[in-house]
Amino acid sequence: MKYTTLALALFALLVATVQAASIGTNAERMARGLPPRAPNKLYKPTARSVANKPKPSGRPGGSCSTGPVQCCEKVTTAKDPVAKLLLGLLGIVLGPDVAVGLTCSPLSIIGIGSGNACHANTVCCENDSLGGLISIGCIPISL
User: Fold this and answer.
1) Which of 10, 48, 73, 119 could join 103 in a cystine, given CB atoms 3.0 to 4.6 angstroms apart?
2) pTM, whole model, 2 decimals?
3) Residues 30, 95: Cα–Cα separation, whole Å
4) If you compute the radius of gyration of the chain from its CA atoms, what whole number of angstroms results?
5) Spatial CA neighbour of 141 closest among 99, 111, 97
6) What is the pLDDT of residue 60?
7) Which of 6-20, 45-59, 109-123 has the lowest mean pLDDT?
8) In the predicted model, what is the mean pLDDT of residues 104-125?
């Protein structure tokens, strides 16, 4: 009986050691060609924590805090060849990922239903001081 208990204890210890060695870190698992293990969840979400998630602001569609809502024929980035040419001619240097609007005109929110609607890209731009030829920092909005 003593030897049986001792043998079972040694077997359990051996199994636990082999199992612990086979788990390893994700780096070790990937080095052996195994997929990484799923991350451990540090908490269990409750109904209250899900309900307390931040909600989007109640900012009404069509409003623009940087100036009038614009209707641009084309919205692209500063690395677009046409936008790059216009910016170069105007002496403006921008990063390649800055959004710009080409051939923009102000859009009256009141006149949306009366034929003054935008059939291209409705945007809100940070800098539209170049007479509508090119507007800088444009973000698409929905009316």
Assistant:
1) 73
2) 0.48
3) 38
4) 31
5) 99
6) 47
7) 45-59
8) 69
